[in-house]
Design goal:
This protein has one helix at about 10-30; strands at about 45-55, 70, 70-80, 85-95, 100-115, 120-135, 140-155, 160-165, 180-185. It is mainly beta.
């Protein structure tokens, strides 16, 4: 069997396509959301920036270690209803645990509680699709995931964080252990 080398010249183009696809999913969801017609004033747009993670195990791949700092940029749309439930859609690009750029898109349903002092706390579940590396060779694929999510906002949600528990994925030497991921958010309007 011949040895194949990985060509990374097209990886930037694939990342851009992933980002456009994720943005398209977000925009299409934003304009077709059921409550948008009667809840324009309850819609918030947030910017996702860098995140950090903690992997519960070290990699078993010799000469590699997990990236736990994840630069990136994304957009989140939140729509609240009268019962303090939020429907959230998000999409963006970020550097993953193997230092490879990829995209993500997803939707979450969150129960939100307002705390005195312009603070909020939310708890829910999100369905996501990540275009990310699935091996140390740089191979990428779409990876679906259901993620429990905790969010907190300060100053009427102008600053916030999303905290997600990501289950282990994969098998063999290319598997990734469970991790906790913390993402910063900034409300735009």
């Amino acid at each position: 069997m011949a040895h194949r080398t990985q060509d990374h010249t097209g990886s930037i183009g694939r990342s851009r396509r992933s980002a456009w696809l994720a943005a398209g999913l977000l925009v299409s969801g934003a304009w077709t959301s059921p409550g948008l017609v009667h809840a324009q004033e309850s819609t918030q747009w947030l910017l996702h920036t860098a995140g950090v993670s903690h992997h519960f195990e070290q990699t078993r791949a010799p000469g590699h270690q997990w990236n736990e700092q994840h630069p990136g940029l994304g957009l989140e749309r939140r729509e609240a209803d009268a019962a303090d439930w939020n429907w959230r859609q998000s999409a963006g690009v970020m550097q993953d645990s193997r230092n490879v750029w990829g995209g993500y898109a997803g939707a979450s349903l969150m129960k939100e509680w307002r705390v005195p002092g312009a603070t909020s706390v939310g708890l829910g579940l999100g369905a996501f699709a990540f275009y990310r590396s699935v091996s140390w060779s740089g191979r990428r694929a779409w990876v679906p995931a259901l993620l429990p999510t905790l969010s907190a906002g300060l100053l009427d949600d102008r600053l916030g964080v999303n905290l997600m528990l990501v289950p282990p994925m994969g098998a063999d030497g290319d598997s990734r252990p469970a991790l906790v991921y913390l993402q910063m958010t900034y409300r735009m309007r």
